[in-house]
Amino acid sequence: MQMSKLVINATQHKSTPDQLAAGVIDLSDDNRATLSALLTFDEIPSQRDMNQRAIDICNLLDKSTPASVGTAMIGGAPFFMATLEKTLLKWGYHPVYAFSKRESVEVQQADGSVKKENIFKHVGFVRV
Questions:
Q1: How confident is the model over 87-115, as pLDDT tens digits?
Q2: Based on the structure, what is the number of domains in the chain?
Q3: 75 touches 98 (CB < 8 A)
Q4: In a 10 Å sphere around its CB, with 0-12 CB exposed, 13-18 middle and 19+ buried, how is residue 79 labelled?
Q5: Does 31 map to a domain?
Q6: Whether the Cβ atoms of residue 128 and residue 99 lie closer than 8 Å to each other
Q7: What is the pLDDT of residues 3-60, one digit of tens each?
Q8: E strands, 1-128, in order
Q9: Neighbours of 118 (CB within 10 A)
Q10: Could you tell me if 9 and 17 are in contact, meaning their C-beta atoms sit under 8 angstroms apart?
């Protein structure tokens, strides 16, 4: 099974420039808002609720993603990811997770102090 070169971003966050360069496509703002609502749990969900949300996400991807996109970058509540992975696979999407490397940089401040910042660089994808 070969992963398509284009990857739909099925997370709550916009893609980073590195991810866009790697072929990730963002949903429209409206569709990302819908996706975000489906990925957000305010109460402990039942398995039935998680199954339905996963189906709703697949429906959203089907109607808002070009047919040539068969890979979905996912992320969210860990307890939901297994259900989402299985549903995506049934619908013909290859679920992947973004893999990043953390780079620490030291930034000199105006007052002479040094602030350490972590920058996460997209390296690739981990297939499910």
A1: 999 999 999 999 999 888 889 999 999 99
A2: 1
A3: yes
A4: exposed
A5: yes
A6: no
A7: 558 999 999 999 999 999 999 999 999 999 999 999 999 999 999 999 999 999 999 9
A8: 7-10, 24-25, 71-74, 94-108, 114-127
A9: 8
A10: no
One-letter amino acid of 83: T
Q: Is 34 helix (H, G, I), strand (E, B) or coil?
A: helix
Token digits of residue 5: 């070169």
Q: What's at 99, amino acid-wise?
A: F
Residue 40 lies in a domain: yes
Q: Which domain holds residue 18?
A: 7-100
Is there a contact between 60 and 33 (Cβ–Cβ < 8 Å)? no
Any domain includes 73: yes
What's the rounded Cα separation, in Å, for the pair 85 and 73?
10
